[in-house]
Design a protein that fits this description.
Elements (H helix, E strand, L loop, with lengths): L1 H15 L12 H32 L3 H20 L13 H5 L8 H10 L7 H6 L7 H9 L11 H34 L2 H23 L22 H15 L1 H10 L3 H23 L20 H26 L5 E2 L2 E2 L11
Antiparallel strand pairs: 1-2
Helix pairs in contact: 1-10, 1-12, 1-13, 2-3, 2-8, 2-11, 3-7, 3-10, 5-7, 7-8, 9-13, 12-13
């Protein structure tokens, strides 16, 4: 527990500890965001290609070593998606690409139903069959079912039907992420020339934090008015929920925070950025300790151990709660007036209804 908490705590401190000095030729915030996100999409595409190749190698000559490499490549590609998931506009909206990569939440277990249906199909699917089907079969959760679900104890992953389905899905993922990377590059000119995308990027990042806090962690942990339910979490089959959360926070640190700091500089609000860092370091540890008591075991199975007291789930929840509050705080106190947007009224930004910072 101590090592896991320490890792998340270091990530928490790093998230807002971005250098606050800039040269005179510093790129604009949108230039910084576009360049950082392009690198993240490039890594997602490369990781998905590695996953496709790993699936092909396993199916050609299945053994335990290749199975372990396949699982590692699945997780690496899934984490690469989490890192850039805060971008919820632009090319990722085309053809519901975000849903293709990750069908979640899945309250009716549509992923399981779709996978079982294809495993029983008379003919093995190819990538085109997967592309023509539901988003529930097209992404990382469907691969997770094949790799980790208890139902696969009755059917080896190396069986021809399972292997064909896995290869079809990984090929679709590789095709989708490659197109996403190319389209983001082509989107650059429009993004850079359209001032409204500054507000859009900020809103997208804050919404990603809201989803992370409320849906990805709060609901499974039972912090949102309903009993704790591990089946509501992402990656519950593999037990990688916290790893995905860490990847999302790291993606915000590398892909979003530098541009946000540059925007604060343009708004002549570097003291506010310094307050971000000070408040983050002071409150992240305090909040992690506060939320530990809320983190209760949900199930006895090992896969649900990510929600127990012996893990860093509560620290993750606290980190994203603090981050979200700090970013909202910066938006209300510095960015909206500088951008000529209606400022906060009675402690909230009227357009979005975001909460005021608890550290005024």
């Amino acid at each position: 527990m101590i090592a896991s908490l320490r890792r998340l705590s270091l990530l928490a401190c790093a998230l807002l500890a971005t250098p606050l000095s800039f040269a005179t030729d510093t790129p604009t915030p949108r230039e910084m965001w576009h360049g950082a996100v392009e690198l993240q999409y490039a890594e997602l595409s490369a990781a998905s290609e590695r996953l496709e190749a790993s699936a092909a190698r396993f199916c050609q000559s299945p053994d335990e070593a290749l199975r372990q490499r396949l699982e590692n490549d699945w997780l690496s590609a899934y984490q690469a998606w989490q890192a850039v998931r805060f971008i919820q506009f632009g090319p990722v909206e085309q053809n519901s690409r975000g849903w293709q990569l990750q069908f979640w939440p899945d309250r009716k277990n549509l992923v399981g139903s779709k996978v079982r249906g294809w495993l029983k199909a008379a003919e093995a699917p190819d990538a085109q069959d997967i592309a023509s089907d539901s988003v529930a079969i097209q992404g990382f959760p469907a691969l997770e079912y094949l790799l980790y679900d208890d139902a696969m104890d009755e059917q080896a992953l190396s069986d021809p039907g399972a292997c064909s389905l896995m290869q079809a899905i990984t090929t679709h993922l590789a095709d989708t992420t490659s197109a996403l990377h190319r389209d983001w590059q082509a989107f650059g000119e429009h993004y850079l020339e359209t001032p409204d995308y500054t507000e859009t990027t900020l809103a997208s990042a804050i919404q990603a934090l809201e989803i992370l806090e409320d849906k990805r962690l709060g609901e499974p942990m039972g912090l949102k008015g309903a009993p704790a339910n591990g089946y509501l979490a992402e990656a519950w089959r593999s037990g990688q929920t916290v790893r995905l959360v860490e990847s999302s926070l790291e993606g915000l640190r590398t892909g979003f925070l530098p541009g946000l700091t540059a925007l604060l500089r343009e708004a002549d609000a570097l003291p506010l950025a310094e307050r971000f860092v000070t408040s983050w370091i002071r409150h992240s540890f305090r909040s992690a300790n506060c939320h530990r008591a809320w983190c209760l075991p949900l199930k006895t199975k090992r896969r649900f151990a990510v929600f127990s007291r012996s893990t860093s789930t509560s620290a993750s929840y606290a980190i994203c709660w603090v981050t979200r509050s700090l970013v909202n705080w910066g938006w209300c106190e510095a960015l909206t007036p500088a951008m000529g947007i209606e400022p906060c009224i009675d402690g909230s930004y009227s357009k979005w209804g975001w909460e005021a910072s608890p550290w005024r």
